[in-house]
């Protein structure tokens, strides 16, 4: 498959993408992953990206697209790819369209994961993360709680609520998403690529995406 996964923070993009990779061997690709990988490899593009990241600056779209071009041509993309949360803006979407045309790659569709706001707030405010940077296991106080002592069941470090997962922070993230990323819905509707999926359960969402791929 060759798809883009769209959705607000907390829509479940990462979980859905992971489950889909197990379906047909397509690889999950996120902007953060390819930037970290390029930096780790020490490539010329990675070195450029590192300079921006070290200063705390956003990596320019042009550089991200150059790194994305390299990533999409790696052997593990032969079976397909799932772009997880990318593109985020209209300029990125336009640049990605040009890149895919250049590489003669064609998207199956863009899967927009639609989740009610109250569900997103509940998901993220109840999420907890292991503070151990080598672990960072994710828990949910309702559906997948840590130990009774509030520690990670894998490494025994404390489990915390991240600063960006308080209700106020999540509301700000959703507002940013609606301003910058939600307009992509209209962009991909015009392209005839958009498919909407109600994403209340990751497994159900994956089942519906598989059906759409077969259709």
Short description:
The chain has nine helices and eight strands. With 215 residues, the protein is α/β, with parallel strands linked by helices. The chain has a single domain (2-26, 79-214), classed as P-loop containing nucleotide triphosphate hydrolases (Rossmann fold), CATH 3.40.50.
Describe the model:
The chain is an alpha/beta fold. The chain has a single domain (2-26, 79-214), classed as P-loop containing nucleotide triphosphate hydrolases (Rossmann fold, 3-Layer(aba) Sandwich), CATH 3.40.50. The chain is built from 9 helices and 8 strands. It has helices at residues 13-24, 31-41, 44-55, 61-72, 90-102, 117-125, 167-180, 184-190, 202-214; strands at 2-7, 27-29, 81-84, 109-114, 127-130, 138-140, 159-160, 194-198. The relative contact order is 0.18. The mean pLDDT is 92.
Task: Give me some keywords for this one.
single chain; five-stranded parallel β-sheet; globular; three-stranded antiparallel β-sheet; Rossmann fold; 9 helices; 48% helix; 215 residues; alpha/beta
């Amino acid at each position: 498959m060759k798809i883009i996964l769209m959705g607000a923070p907390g829509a479940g993009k990462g979980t859905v993408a992971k489950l889909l990779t197990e379906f047909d061997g397509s690889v999950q690709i996120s902007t953060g992953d390819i930037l970290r990988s390029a930096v780790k490899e020490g490539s010329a593009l990675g070195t450029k990206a590192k300079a921006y990241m070290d200063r705390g600056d956003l990596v320019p779209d042009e550089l991200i697209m150059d790194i994305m071009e390299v990533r999409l041509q790696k052997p593990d993309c032969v079976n397909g790819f799932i772009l997880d949360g990318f593109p985020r803006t209209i300029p990125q979407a336009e640049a990605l369209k040009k890149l895919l045309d250049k590489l003669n790659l064609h998207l199956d569709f863009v899967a927009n994961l639609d989740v009610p706001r109250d569900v997103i707030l509940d998901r993220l405010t109840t999420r907890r993360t292991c503070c151990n940077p080598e672990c960072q296991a994710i828990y949910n106080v309702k559906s997948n709680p840590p130990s009774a002592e509030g520690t990670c069941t894998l490494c025994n470090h404390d489990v915390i609520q991240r600063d960006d997962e308080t209700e106020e922070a999540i509301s700000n993230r959703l507002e940013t998403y609606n301003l910058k990323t939600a307009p992509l819905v209209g962009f991909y509707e015009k392209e005839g690529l958009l498919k909407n999926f109600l994403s209340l359960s990751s497994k159900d969402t994956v089942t519906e995406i598989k059906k759409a791929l077969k259709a």
